[in-house]
Structure formats: structure tokens, C-alpha cells
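To fix ideas, we reproduce below a protein record of this kind.
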Amino acid sequence: MTDAQALCGMLDALCPMHVVLSPTGHVRHAGPTLQKLRPDGPMEGRRFLEVVEFTRPRQVRGMDDLMAAAGIRLHLRLRDAPPTALKGVLVPVPGGEGAIMNLSFGISILEGVRDYALSSADFAATDLAVEMLYLVEAKSAAMEASRKLNLRLRGAMIAAEEQAFTDTLTGLKNRRAVEHILPRLIEGGGPFAVLQADLDFFKQVNDERGHAAGDAVLQRVAGILVEETRGSDCVARIGGDEFVVIFGEVDARARLARIAERIIARIETPIPFDGQVCRISISIGIALSEETRPLCMAEILADADAALYACKRRGRACFAFFEPEMRPDGM
């Protein structure tokens, strides 16, 4: 091994971003980290000023200008993309054999690490950049851990909120969800409708077939209500065999009547359970926001309930829209 090779090996270990220049300004040797910045082609043999351009001092045209700037802080950047900014200090090699320039990223180290996927192994062990990299890595690890924790917490919060608004037997919304949604619709000012339903002969199913049959019936009814409504509508079970459907942006009586008729027809179809069938029907009362005065949650629910019980008095298995005379006080 020649003395020059031994010197380059030591420089590679002590300052891996150095460059050894010939008296003509050509690259004799580039440190491994510096070469890593441009892995597509070796720097050796190239004119150094073809690889970099100086931003301070600007009047660097050749080796003489470089030698005149020996010992002062130099600012330069790589010519091709990405045009990474560097800082350096040049010292002449004794006997006019050229010069050695040690380079660093300076305050742009984080950009350099990002652009070139550098690690602590690409810097001298005593370089303060190593400590900065450790801090950056520690911060990145902490931020990633925090991000994952926040995602888990958010997921748990969403799950808890969903559970709080969900009926566990049917998977429908519950009364709490209705009490959350209705005030928002009222505040929004758009038209909406509330359908309140109650199953007919459900108690008979529970008494004759047992609660397991009753649960199966409730789940089947829930499925029909979901199938006959839109994904944007709120379908809720608010009691044992009581259901509420909230139709947003709907106030057409004809459309609501068709939906009610389909629901009634489908629920009258016998529901099989454990080798037998369960027979029920449904009564439906409907209230429109445009016709509810004063418009508030309690009032529109009371109107829908009044229409529902008007159906019960008519013989069940039917639907009715609320009319003022249906109120208990007749007003």
C-alpha cells in the first residue's frame, strides 16, 4: 500500500466527506460519504468545479482561486439534482501536491440525510452530526409511537361512541343516537320525516315461542327496515319492539307511504324459527318536520307516536301520517 493510499484510508475514517484534489483541481479521491451523494458515477478524475459550484466566495474559477481561499469557510453546492448545499474548509498539501477539502452538510444535514438515506455509519464517530442523527431518530421514533398511540386511541374512541349509539341485539342505532341526530337535523333547517313503528302481536311470540324467538323476530325486522331505507337514514330500536326511522331530506308523503307499505307487507310474511313460524305485523306513524309546530325533538316524536297509536286503534298493520286531531288534547 502506497503512502497516498494509506492517507486516503485514514481520511475515509476520520472525515468521510472529504475530497483530495490534484494541483489541476481534479478529484484524486472522494470520501465514501461524499461519493454516496452521487452514486451513479465516480468523482475521481473529474474536475471538482464540474461537480460543485461555489456560492461564497463566488469568484472561484480554478485551483488558484481555491488555494487563495485556504483556511476559510467555503459555501458550495452540488451542481446536479438534488443541489445539496455543503460547507467546507480547504488545506493545501505540502509541496504543491494539491489540496484536501473537508466537507459537511452544516445546518442542512437533515435534508442530506433525507435525500440520501444516510445513517450514523456515514459520518465520523466524533462528528456532532452523529449526535444530531440520534436525536432525530429518537424524535422520529417517539413521533411514530405517538402517531400509533393516537390512532389506537381514536379507534377506541370511535368504537366506544359507536357502541354507545348502537343497539346490541339488532345492530341498529339506539335511543341515544336518535336524541343526537334529531337536534342536528332541526338545527340544519332542511326537511325530514320521522317514522315511528311498533310491532303487533310481538308479546304473543315471546309468550308462545320464547325470548330466543322474540330476538330472532327483532333481528329480522331490523334487517327489513335497513333494506327498505337508505344508508343515510337513521334506523333505530328505541325500546323492546319499538323502532324509529329518521329520513333526512325527505318530506314527500307519497314516497314515505310507499316505503311504509313495503315495510308492512314484508313484516307480515311469516318468520321461520326453530322449525316453526312467527307471525307479526307492524303499525307505523309518520310525522313531517314541515308540519310540526313548534318544531323540536319532543314535539315531532310525540306527533309520530300519536299517528302510530291512531293506527293501533284502526286495527293495526297500517300506517298513518300525523294530523292535528290525533293529539291527545285534540289540538
